[in-house]
Amino acid sequence: MEFMDIHICGACRTQFNVVEHFIAHKQLCPMLNQMKRQAKIDNQAHGQESETQTSVQRQGRAEEAEPASTSKHCDFTTTYAKDIERHIRTHTGEKPFICNYCNKTFNRSDKLKIHIRLHTGEKPFRCSYCEYAAVDSSSLKKHVRTHTDERPFKCQICSYASKNSSQLVVHLRTHTGDSPFQCGICQAKFKINSDLKRHGRIHTGEKPYKCDLCDYKCSIKANLKTHLKINHSEENKMTCTQCSFSSSSKKVMREHGKVHDTSTTYECDLCKYISNSKSALATHRRVHSEERPYPCDFCTYKSKQIGNIKTHIK
């Protein structure tokens, strides 16, 4: 299955599905160019050494810096050779830093260092509110917001605010209608990659979520939780007064009760179908029509019965 990447401009937050379009945008974006110009001014101002600096400091700075290094791929400019070398990798895709544990490659040494901690278990960044520890500072910052409820990422269109930038990016798609993640099999589109992965299980038949108490399997975690609550939860479990049927769901118990209720019957006017449930008759009548009121949230499939949708999603 093919998963499409999304590329987001760090200045104006415009999103692109095609990397070439993203690169072209970076050369033209006025907000991004203004940020680069300001960064260049700041770097030049910072680079002006005071007369009080020692000769050793001057020598160290001179060895690291090169005058106005530029990228031939775009208008990126920097004072330091190591910065231009690292930036060029964003265009070439080169990843020279290799993990000795799993051979995964990275375009920056600091990213490799963080990745290696996943193998070693090292978590040097610790939360001051609880026992949580993280492999990098950004993960710790995100975690701390669960304690402080700080929401620094604000939507410019509505009052929505989030604890991290990725949540804001997903939220913005509710305004733009953008669905950048596309299924390579049926062309269904999604706003977040996790929805695409979940949808992909419809095509592959994968059911990674298994019930520990029976043979039930499903492709969506929420379906497993519902299954456990209805079929295996002893909390608030109810038993039918006329048979041994039991469930912790009031809705399920009400529907089951109609099996024993023979006082009222509903007949189909198009065939000989009879039911003691009005809703069951309404569902049956769709057999005689083309009505399919239950659409799949992940593809174009529609069904006459909600039970078929549940089976389809599993």
From TrEMBL:
Key words of the record: DNA-binding, Metal-binding, Nucleus, Repeat, Transcription, Transcription regulation, Zinc, Zinc-finger
Protein name per UniProt: C2H2-type domain-containing protein
One BP term from GO: positive regulation of DNA-templated transcription
A GO MF label: zinc ion binding
Pfam families assigned: zf-C2H2, zf-H2C2_5
Annotated GO CC locations: chromosome; nucleus
SMART domains: ZnF_C2H2 (SM00355)
Domain C2H2-type: 69-96, 97-124, 125-152, 153-180, 181-208, 209-237, 266-293
Signal peptide: none
Organism name: Lottia gigantea
Localization per Swiss-Prot or TrEMBL: Nucleus
Region (Disordered): 40-72
Polar residues biased stretches: 45-58
